[in-house]
Amino acid sequence: MADAGGKPVIGVIGGSGLYEIDGLTNTRWETVESPFGPPSDQLLFGDLDGQPMVFLPRHGRGHRVPPSGLNFRANIDALKRAGVTEILSVSAVGSLNADLPPGMFVIVDQFIDRTFAREKSFFSEGLVAHVSMAHPTCGRLGDAVEEACRELEIPHQRGGTYLVMEGPQFSTRAESELYRAWGCDVIGMTNMPEAKLAREAEMCYCTVAMVTDYDCWHPDHDHVTVDAIIKVLMDNADKGRSLVKAVAPRLSDRAAACEKGCHEALTTALITHPDARDPSLVAKLDAVAGRMLG
Ligand SMILES: CSC[C@H]1O[C@H](OP(=O)(O)O)[C@H](O)[C@@H]1O
Ligand SMILES: Nc1ncnc2[nH]cnc12
């Protein structure tokens, strides 16, 4: 359990290309068990310039787990159990927008969820909840990421819509054009239901998306391949790691409670009458919804 003495604890979910954190001291990999099953890997606990940090490689060390095989519920539940209050999600994405070339970082603020083969909620029969997803990312965490991008002179865009596809195959040209017509900026396979579950678990969540390719719509660029993605990621890995290092201290002088309301998302969400709740589900939700379930 990471303890920041009432201050925010940052958890980094590292996507493709971000498998470690620079400058982390007092590190230890620990197994965190979750009633929702095994997370992608052990969690790496450490300190970054005195700020407690927890790191989870989204696809596991060695990139073993495909997007549809990720146990998103276990990942978020384990981070919550570890004491994390704010999640910085780092992701590789394709660009759907001519103004977002490879190498650009996008501080995502909206999602369109087109996934269909994933467990999307901690809640189910026996305890029903409906949280708001109107603003799926945390503006306070987004401010910290934006300040860090500016300081490091990383080319970035504040705001953007991330289309989440099921994968694992990349999109067809017709799909890519459709998502562009919808006004989407970037495309990836992992941030949903991650963001929904972070909201249900009352944690701040913000995505920094690193553009690696133009998917398959751009007339002047080849369609995306893993090789091309890895090449851009290697060129940008240092920037991604420096960004995480620069975000962490920006949180340390803040109150743990997020003024955007992320830590109170369940206050108005539970609808099942206390007498009608399933005790076994209530027990499973001890970390995610303990604040509301007592
Ligand atoms: C490496 S190819 C595509 C892979 O990369 C992205 O994952 P992440 O968000 O974890 O960086 C994308 O969504 C695919 O899963
Ligand atoms: N074009 C793309 N489509 C889906 N996921 C991606 N991750 C990186 N580039 C991608």
From TrEMBL:
<comment type="pathway">
    <text>Amino-acid biosynthesis; L-methionine biosynthesis via salvage pathway; S-methyl-5-thio-alpha-D-ribose 1-phosphate from S-methyl-5'-thioadenosine (phosphorylase route): step 1/1.</text>
</comment>
<dbReference type="InterPro" id="IPR035994">
    <property type="entry name" value="Nucleoside_phosphorylase_sf"/>
</dbReference>
<feature type="binding site">
    <location>
        <begin position="213"/>
        <end position="215"/>
    </location>
    <ligand>
        <name>substrate</name>
    </ligand>
</feature>
<comment type="similarity">
    <text>Belongs to the PNP/MTAP phosphorylase family. MTAP subfamily.</text>
</comment>
<dbReference type="Pfam" id="PF01048">
    <property type="entry name" value="PNP_UDP_1"/>
</dbReference>
<feature type="binding site">
    <location>
        <begin position="91"/>
        <end position="92"/>
    </location>
    <ligand>
        <name>phosphate</name>
    </ligand>
</feature>
<dbReference type="GO" id="GO:0019509">
    <property type="term" value="P:L-methionine salvage from methylthioadenosine"/>
</dbReference>
<dbReference type="GO" id="GO:0006166">
    <property type="term" value="P:purine ribonucleoside salvage"/>
</dbReference>
<feature type="site" description="Important for substrate specificity">
    <location>
        <position position="171"/>
    </location>
</feature>
<feature type="domain" description="Nucleoside phosphorylase">
    <location>
        <begin position="10"/>
        <end position="247"/>
    </location>
</feature>
<comment type="function">
    <text>Catalyzes the reversible phosphorylation of S-methyl-5'-thioadenosine (MTA) to adenine and 5-methylthioribose-1-phosphate. Involved in the breakdown of MTA, a major by-product of polyamine biosynthesis. Responsible for the first step in the methionine salvage pathway after MTA has been generated from S-adenosylmethionine. Has broad substrate specificity with 6-aminopurine nucleosides as preferred substrates.</text>
</comment>
<dbReference type="InterPro" id="IPR000845">
    <property type="entry name" value="Nucleoside_phosphorylase_d"/>
</dbReference>
<feature type="binding site">
    <location>
        <begin position="58"/>
        <end position="59"/>
    </location>
    <ligand>
        <name>phosphate</name>
    </ligand>
</feature>
<dbReference type="GO" id="GO:0005829">
    <property type="term" value="C:cytosol"/>
</dbReference>
<dbReference type="InterPro" id="IPR010044">
    <property type="entry name" value="MTAP"/>
</dbReference>
<feature type="binding site">
    <location>
        <position position="16"/>
    </location>
    <ligand>
        <name>phosphate</name>
    </ligand>
</feature>
<dbReference type="GO" id="GO:0017061">
    <property type="term" value="F:S-methyl-5-thioadenosine phosphorylase activity"/>
</dbReference>
<feature type="site" description="Important for substrate specificity">
    <location>
        <position position="226"/>
    </location>
</feature>
<feature type="binding site">
    <location>
        <position position="189"/>
    </location>
    <ligand>
        <name>substrate</name>
    </ligand>
</feature>
<protein>
    <recommendedName>
        <fullName>S-methyl-5'-thioadenosine phosphorylase</fullName>
        <ecNumber>2.4.2.28</ecNumber>
    </recommendedName>
</protein>
<dbReference type="InterPro" id="IPR018099">
    <property type="entry name" value="Purine_phosphorylase-2_CS"/>
</dbReference>
<keyword id="KW-0660">Purine salvage</keyword>
<comment type="subunit">
    <text>Homohexamer. Dimer of a homotrimer.</text>
</comment>
<feature type="binding site">
    <location>
        <position position="190"/>
    </location>
    <ligand>
        <name>phosphate</name>
    </ligand>
</feature>
<keyword id="KW-0808">Transferase</keyword>
<keyword id="KW-0328">Glycosyltransferase</keyword>
